[in-house]
Design a protein that fits this description.
This protein is mainly α. Helix content is 29%, strand content 0%. This is NACHT C-terminal Alpha/Beta 2 domain-containing protein.
Amino acid sequence: MTADGGSRDSAARVFREIDRVRDESGAPEDEPRHSDLASGKPWPIFVPDPDVEDSG
């Protein structure tokens, strides 16, 4: 369903947007947040923003 979460991964972009809206508006408490629990992949997929400098 999702690839690597990069800029060309349209499914991951859509899921991140859904998560953002749910973070702002709320979601059912008993609804799992992961799009594919059986995949074993972490969610949400985080990809470092190339425009952000590491301050650490």
